[in-house]
Amino acid sequence: MRWMPRMRMLLARRPWLYWLLVIAIAVGIATTVAAAMGDVRRQRDAWGHATTVFMTTRDVAVGESLAGAVTSRDVPTAIVPPAALANMPAAATATQPIAAGEIIVRVDVVDEQGPLALVPRGWLAIDVPRTDDPLDTVRQLFGVGDSAVVLADGSIIAEHAIVVDVTGDRLAVAVPRDVAARVAQAANQRVAVLALGRP
User: Fold this and answer.
1) Range with the lowest mean pLDDT among 81-90, 100-109, 131-140?
2) How many CA atoms lie within 13 A of 96 on its CB side?
3) Going by C-beta distance under 8 Å and a sequence separation of 6 or more, which residues neighbour residue 89?
4) Which pLDDT score is estimated for 140?
5) Are residues 150 and 183 in contact, defined by beta-carbon separation less than 8 angstroms?
6) pTM score, two decimals?
7) Phi, psi values for residue 54, rounded to 5°
8) Does the pLDDT value for residue 154 go beyond 60?
9) Using CA atoms in the order 88, 94, 96, 101, what is the torsion angle rounded to 10 degrees?
10) To 10 degrees, the CA torsion angle through 7, 10, 14, 18?
11) Angle at CA of residue 161, ends 90 and 94, nearest 5°
12) Which top CATH class is 50-112?
């Protein structure tokens, strides 16, 4: 500790040494901060510039409106999917389940509401009324957006169908236009049966 009094005496006799030491410490701190900021900038540049995307604030089911369930956020461009929406349709409806916090892409939504939102282009939606059987629980198996097959009289009349609406006494399915007449006839005769199928 003998060097402390000597250092004080030296700095008192030569004040320029004191200021030289202060400047050296300041330069060292400034260099460290500048290096840290440079690292931050390099990391930010590696992720690209920020892009505004739309994300869900909660889980959204198939056929559900996205009103009140979407927020816009700025995220690094590197993690933005190519099909991310640049603007949100006014009547946006989910065409598939969307998890909370997921970036919304084009295939997730359509700019329509109601059952028509889930009807593919060129297909038709047909009501399939409930059968007279009081034990008919088939509607409990189906949810909006489910893939199905339509059968009647022991044969398949629509290989591909999509459930677009489920109510207490009826179920609406979308089917390709070329089989729509057969499905409508079977539904009218109350012989149409739906089976769950994989999309």
Assistant:
1) 131-140
2) 9
3) 109, 110, 111
4) 64
5) yes
6) 0.59
7) -105, 135
8) yes
9) 60
10) 0
11) 20
12) alpha beta
